[in-house]
Amino acid sequence: MEQMTFHFDTVLSDVHMHFHSAQHLMTRLNQVGQPEHTMATTLEDVGKQVWRGALLLADFILSQPIMFRAATVLDMGAGTGLTSIVMATTAKTVYCTDVGEDLLSMCRKNVSLNQHLMEDADLEFSWTEDEVADLHDNTSFIIAADVCYDDDLTDGFFRTLYKLCSSFTHTCIIYISIEKRMNFTLRHMDVSCDAYNHFRHCLSGLQELEDQRCSFTVEQISANFTQFFIYERIEHLLPLFSVER
Questions:
Q1: CB contact at 8 A, 84 and 97
Q2: Which residue of 84, 101, 122, 124 lies most exposed, with the fewest beta carbons within 10 A?
Q3: What integer pLDDT is reported at residue 123 of this predicted model?
């Protein structure tokens, strides 16, 4: 195990991926015997960790291979790339996106290490006119795993989601997984879920939006599909939502 130093602002993932069976996805390991990710980071770098929301969404993708087959999919805030890699085993095209060169480098490396799971993994993605046109014309699914943990990021996520969907001329379904994290706050002097509550507020605002350009329908999906990855799945703390545009 790699040596770690913990600071006051260190954030720990509840998930540490370590697969003993060669039959599992993400079987190529790094020099310390783990897939490319980080167990502990500062808040700004939590995208380098694997969170349960990503594993839940990956399970959902694997349970619906026919639905995603031959689809064009946009992964927003892909982090380590886990959900994009799993989606690429069935979809035609996956646009794996995030922010930060070091994070994208880690993600790119994970995609490269798992090319054996995909028919065609083109790592040279540079937002050409053809790629942008393909994304706008053909994206039928958008996925996002555990990207709403900070209010400002959540607001930006929903603004981007609306801007994208309002430019589409076709139906698009968005799948969002999020972990409902309980924290004690001095403001409330109680345990609360501020980040999750803000996410739900934004989700309700999207559904209630009265706009001639597009409308949205929100539904929570029951997590009774097959669990392929090993993690603790508690449905009321790990919800999955579909948003149809």
A1: no
A2: 124
A3: 63
Is the separation of the CB atoms in 240 and 221 below 8 Å? yes
Q: Which two tokens stand for residue 62?
A: 């694997």
Q: What is the pLDDT of residue 2?
A: 46
Residues 129-178: tens digit of each pLDDT: 988 899 999 999 999 999 988 899 999 999 999 999 999 989 999 999 99
User: 29: left (phi > 0), else alpha (psi -120 to 50), else beta?
Assistant: beta
d(CA 215, CA 128): 29
3-state secondary structure 79-146: CCCHHHHHHCCCCCEEEEECCCHHHHHHHHHHHHHCHHHCCCCCCCCCCCHHHHHHHHHHEEEEEEEC
pLDDT band at 16 (very low <50, low <70, confident <90, very high): very low
- The reported pLDDT for the residue numbered 35 is 47
Q: Report how far residue 139's alpha carbon sits from residue 150's, in angstroms, rounded to the nearest whole number.
A: 26
Burial of 188: CB neighbours in 10 Å, binned 0-12, 13-18, 19+: exposed
Instruction: In whole angstroms, give the CA distance from residue 203 to residue 151.
Output: 13
Main-chain phi, psi angles of 133, to 5 degrees: -65, -40
> What does the pLDDT average to over 38-49?
53
Task: For residue 30, give the amino acid letter.
Answer: N
Residue 230: DSSP 8-state: -
